[in-house]
Design brief:
2 domains, single chain, about 300 residues, MetI-like fold, 13 helices, mainly alpha
Length: about 300
């Protein structure tokens, strides 16, 4: 929880130092000094930084995320709906990346130094060199502008999932492919595989019983890390495709100076990363017998 506390403190400090006056934005240029002072008092902006931060933490521990400065709705109500959309997009992207990454990685390792292996290496290098927003723009040009097959913005149907999902999944699939391929090639040269073959096991049995399961251990833990990265990367992709998720909400809240929404989004993201890291550690311990024996 220390990481979540530090993230909230950092976000609070950055918002404090950011330019602009939310009171002036809400009331307009024609507001009087008295009106501005009244609103500052209502929002506790007349209090010192540490007092406001401690007050926010006290309310947060009670489950109170505050209300939006723009529309007056509870922040928790706004965040939950948008987070579900982001989580759905991230889960679909992760699933696609895992299926493609594990398949291509194993296929490439099976054809080591062959034409397929070289093609996979080049393809993954290209995907890793281009950021997710670059891939998003490229896919939009092909499937929306030229072929007119898929919608660019919105989230009302299954078609709206395809472009954002591909934009997030492609770089992640490239990372998983590289890792699976490297781990499988590393396992091939270990002594236990030579011993298994010496005992009369076929090449297929060696791969299925020994090489592939051992290569999966670091790859599975990497999936958890990449899931967290996808949640972060979704901010840019959601904005590009106007996807109604947490990322787009946060970006819009930053421009609107809706600080309670921004703070809630940052704290939620930090909490998710903390939970994911803990889950990855637990999963790694369960999968790796060496770590279990060490414990």
């Amino acid at each position: 929880m220390l990481a979540v506390l530090l993230a909230s403190l950092l976000a609070f400090a950055i918002l404090e130092a950011s330019p602009g006056d939310i009171v002036q934005t809400l009331l307009g240029d024609e507001s009087t000094i008295e009106q501005q002072m009244t609103l500052r008092s209502e929002l506790n902006l007349d209090q010192p930084f540490h007092v406001r931060f401690l007050t926010y933490l006290a309310n947060l521990l009670q489950g109170d995320l505050g209300v939006s400065l723009i529309n007056g709705r509870p922040v928790a109500e706004i965040i939950v709906h948008r987070f579900i959309n982001t989580l759905l997009l991230t889960c679909l992207s992760t699933t696609l990346a895992v299926v493609v990454g594990f398949s291509l990685g194993a296929w490439s390792a099976l054809h080591h130094k062959g034409l397929i292996d070289m093609a996979v290496i080049v393809l993954t290098a290209l995907c890793l060199a281009i950021p997710s927003f670059g891939i998003a723009i490229f896919l939009t040009q092909i499937f929306s502008v030229h072929l007119k097959l898929l919608p660019v913005v919105g989230g009302g149907s299954l078609k709206h999932f395809i472009l954002p999902c591909l934009s997030l999944a492609i770089p992640t699939a490239a990372v998983i492919t590289r890792l699976v391929r490297a781990r499988m090639l590393d396992e091939i040269n270990k002594q236990y595989t030579l011993t298994a073959r010496a005992k009369g096991l076929s090449n297929k049995q060696v791969w299925l019983r020994h090489i592939f399961p051992n290569a999966l251990i670091p790859a599975v833990t990497m999936v958890g890390v990449q899931f967290g990265h996808l949640l972060g990367g979704a901010f840019v992709v959601e904005t590009l495709f106007a996807w109604p998720g947490l990322g787009r909400l946060t970006v819009q809240a930053i421009f609107d100076q809706d600080y309670p929404v921004v703070l809630a989004a940052v704290i939620l993201s930090a909490l998710i990363f903390q939970v994911l890291n803990s889950m990855v550690d637990i999963l790694h311990r369960q999968l790796d017998p060496l770590i279990r024996e060490g414990d």
